[in-house]
Write a structure and sequence with these properties.
Layout: H1 2-12, H2 18-26, H3 36-46, H4 52-65, H5 77-92, E1 113-118, E2 124-129, E3 137-138, H6 146-149, E4 159-160
Antiparallel strand pairs: 1-2, 3-4
Helix pairs in contact: 1-3
Length: about 180
């Protein structure tokens, strides 16, 4: 939202009496789907200060930057994993399998993926992978909904991020370092 707000703020300068418009914006009451963004864009379009092709560029740019914004509408961390992360990881690494008693007779729900792995000595191993998710949200806006508090990957704002558990113990034979940094 930071980038969209900045872009719209720049576009407001095109309006006659831009300061008066900003004052009316400060006093605006928003109720979904009527928001400050819709208010600004509709005034810019109606006033002929934003061409339809500029609107499309603004919209497409926002959508490209925020393809995963819906993740912030998923409330619980476990829900993010179930509704998004598992599918996303499966797209990135199709070899990942959902664990089951068939793959691992000892399986009882303690991990999220199974990966068949052949070591340098051609020995097969089953690697158990646990997936944990979190979101970076602007903590300076405590009363706003999560999708408004979502921070861009290049944001300089401080944020809260909560990991439910961290397990530093790992086996020396196999270690994967996955980073999804910069994908949001």
């Amino acid at each position: 939202m930071e980038k969209l707000t900045s872009e719209l703020d720049r576009l407001i300068e095109r309006l006659e009496r831009a300061d008066d418009f900003r004052t009316s914006l400060e006093n605006l009451v928003s109720v979904y789907p009527f928001s400050e963004y819709e208010y600004v864009i509709s005034h810019l379009l109606a006033g002929g200060k934003l061409a339809i092709n500029e609107y499309h560029e603004l919209r497409d740019s926002y959508i490209d930057r925020n393809l995963y914004l819906y993740i912030f509408e998923i409330s619980a961390p476990r829900g993010i994993g179930d509704k998004w992360a598992f599918g996303h990881l499966k797209q990135l690494v199709p070899e990942l399998k959902r664990p089951s008693k068939k793959l691992d007779p000892k399986y009882s729900g303690e991990y999220d993926f199974w990966l068949d792995w052949i070591d340098s000595k051609n020995k097969a191993h089953g690697v158990r992978i646990e997936v944990k998710t979190s979101r970076a949200a602007d903590f300076q806006r405590p009363d706003d909904p999560l999708y408004i508090k979502a921070l861009a990957s290049d944001s300089k704002k401080p944020f809260d991020m909560n990991f439910q558990q961290i397990k530093p113990k790992m086996r020396r034979r196999f270690c994967m370092d996955w980073s999804l940094e910069g994908q949001y």
